[in-house]
Amino acid sequence: MLAATIVGAAACGGDDAGRPADGEPTGPAGPTGALRVFAAASLTEAFAALADAFEDEHPDVTVTTNFAASSELATQILEGAPADVYASADETNMARLVDAGETAGEPIVFATNRLQIAVEPGNPLGIAALDDLADADVLFITAAPQVPIGRYAAAVLDAAGVDVTPRSLEGSVRGVVNKVVLGEADAGIVFETDVRAAGDSATGVDIPDELNVVARYPLAVTGSSTNANTARAFVDFVASVAGRAILAEFGFGAP
Fold first, then answer.
1. Which residues, in sequence order, are bridge partners of residue 243?
2. How far apart are CA 170 and CA 141, in angstroms?
3. Which of 25, 46, 101, 116 is the most buried (most CB within 10 A)?
């Protein structure tokens, strides 16, 4: 009788390894499957590192990243591109998704950034201030106004009272950096993190605090995510102490 009682209890309560018996709830599954992350171009190196760290922590997850201007990514999502997470370099483009009901829950601000003037290595033209960008001999470029860096650049130039016509409008902040690195432009206003990512290929000229802006980066699970559990886990990871430490390695500030 005692043996029968023990066997019966085991059948009802699971095995010695703690596995539940058939029919018992097992709780929510951990992060698994494919995760599609759309992130602002300025987040390229940082989010590649975050994706690697998240995959290391969750071996059953495969993260695919798509980097472009925040405005372009928002348009892609609104037009039906499959994405699970959206990270923007500004709150304006995130608001487009919120207003369209394309976010699951309230976005969170996970990082900040500031602006610098990117110039060629060694700053051969001696560009020292925003005023210098209006010099006729300086080939200055920026991004289109719907792109976060384009709007931020216009704001700092306006604050400084500098009237300058850019020679071209690039599609993303990385487009601006690349033209400076390649010698196709003398200067462009970009994020501090972009100058840092360029390494020895560019030099950064500081913009005074009273003229600079603080760019706030929001993050959200998309409303059309097909892997919302894993997407939420990734958002939580980015906002965690470990995630913010990775972001700090690439020059991003705390929210």
1. none
2. 8
3. 46
Q: At residue 18, does pLDDT exceed 70? A: no
Q: What is the pLDDT of residue 81?
A: 98
- Tell me the CA distances in angstroms from 106 to 79, 232, 234, one per residue in order: 21, 12, 15
pLDDT value at 19 more than 60: no
Token representation of residue 213? 């802006």
Angle between helix 44-57 and 241-249 (nearest 10): 140
For the chain, helix, strand, coil in percent to 5 are 40, 20, 35
Closest CA to 90 of 31, 45, 152: 152
Q: Give Cα separations from 142 to 45, 61, 150, 198, 219 (angstroms).
A: 21, 37, 6, 17, 25
- Homologous superfamily (CATH) of 115-206 is Periplasmic binding protein-like II (3.40.190.10)
What's the CATH superfamily of 33-112+216-249? Answer: Periplasmic binding protein-like II (3.40.190.10)
Which of 135, 89, 137 shows the shortest CA–CA distance to 109? 89
Lookup: tokens for 75:
């348009």
pTM confidence score = 0.87
The SS3 of residue 154 is helix
